[in-house]
Amino acid sequence: MGNVIASAVVSLDGFVADLEDGVGPLFDWYGNGPVETFGADPGRPFHVTQASADYINETWPNIRSCIIGRRLFDITNGWNGVPAVGDHVFVVTHEPPTDWPFPDAPFTFVNGIEEAVAQAKAHAGDHDVSITGGNLTGQALAAGLVDEIAYNLAPVVMGTGRKFFGDYAGPQVLLDNPRIVEGDRVTHLHYRVSR
């Protein structure tokens, strides 16, 4: 069985977006290097440093399932039916869309983080599952469902915004020492949750 990895690009003060869901300089590193690399969409290249490309190419290909919330789904329009990473997206929502123009896309709408993780793990098999930062990350961490945290730290203090762990109010969680990869405008911090 693969790992469940909570992942996002995060400001120094812990935000994944501002209050209007803008990412501002958080994503600068996706386009400031000479090395072209891809997630699941061959039409969406990233241009990063060699260090970031090596990190991406080591971790992203092992992700088979992604879990996102309805907010991110709506903001991105579900990436027009093409998963950003992995080959299937599980969207946690109480109200699946009824008029999304990509009904055959590999997206499944589920009710609750536990159901989403169970279905995503079943789909992923021996591969990993990614949970995008925000309230879902906090819910999954509180439920003991997270194995690793991929904290891609951007050098910005946002002051306010959407938190990486949402409104997490669960127990204290200890992490192992991180694997650290220094990119340009990003530091990749990859932790295992201590068990």
UniProtKB/TrEMBL annotation:
GO biological process, one term: riboflavin biosynthetic process
Domain Bacterial bifunctional deaminase-reductase C-terminal: 113-172
Gene3D superfamilies: Dihydrofolate Reductase, subunit A
Molecular-function GO terms, alphabetical: 5-amino-6-(5-phosphoribosylamino)uracil reductase activity
Pfam families per record: RibD_C
InterPro entries: DHFR-like_dom_sf (IPR024072), RibDG_C (IPR002734)
Name the UniProt record assigns to this protein: Dihydrofolate reductase
